[in-house]
Here is the input.
Amino acid sequence: MLEITHVSKTFNPGQITEKKALLDINLKLEDGDFVTVIGGNGAGKSTLLNLIAGVHSSDTGSIVIDGKDVTSMKEYNRAKFIGRVFQDPMMGTAGNMEIEENLAMALRRGNKRTLAWGIKKEEREIYREKLALLDLGLETRLHAKVGLLSGGQRQALTLLMATLKKPDLLLLDEHTAALDPKTAAKVLELTEKFIEQDHLTAFMVTHNMKDAIRYGNRLIMMMKGEIIYDVRGEEKKSLKVEDLLAKFAAQGDLNDRVMLGQ
Here is the structure.
């Protein structure tokens, strides 16, 4: 579903602020893989995710999603087969629009635009059914402005919007980092539920090692622009936080962000 081959990225090359963010990354995700990605500050996690999404272009290599070479494809063209949930709950929704209008935009993502905008009764029933899955009471508030929702409600809605059309690839960029622990647990529970029921392929960047171990079938650790650890299956299930901390320590990268991510 995702194949990254010899991808590298350097920001501000030749300048005093030059930063080698990714160094010859090779990664392959199979259909249905749910991969969690951890690493300290500057490890390259978000840069890799942004390259996949098309926010940045790579200096070398190729990126292929479900057989389509997207290496040179613009971000807005990739949106038709990529779902994304950001760290900031405010980024994935339009706050001045109603809940049903946000969902309508998500449902029409990648389609040709016409002058017809009206939301039909049958479509509205689909939204109610999907919103009920969130168990937040939003199915009775279709006409509420999204800007009136809490951060957790908006993030849950963003997750629903990102998965509404069953994307080829779901990108989750520390999507619970800005939420309180209880709300974060709820959003992660929904994330796992949607991924499993629709058999989605997902790439989740997180700084929380417990979440990285608890969720998904595969875990990747990044450091200084490289993938230094890739584990899956039963070996991943048997991991403990102490094991990951030991690997960070062995590489000399046991920083505050890593410690707080326990």
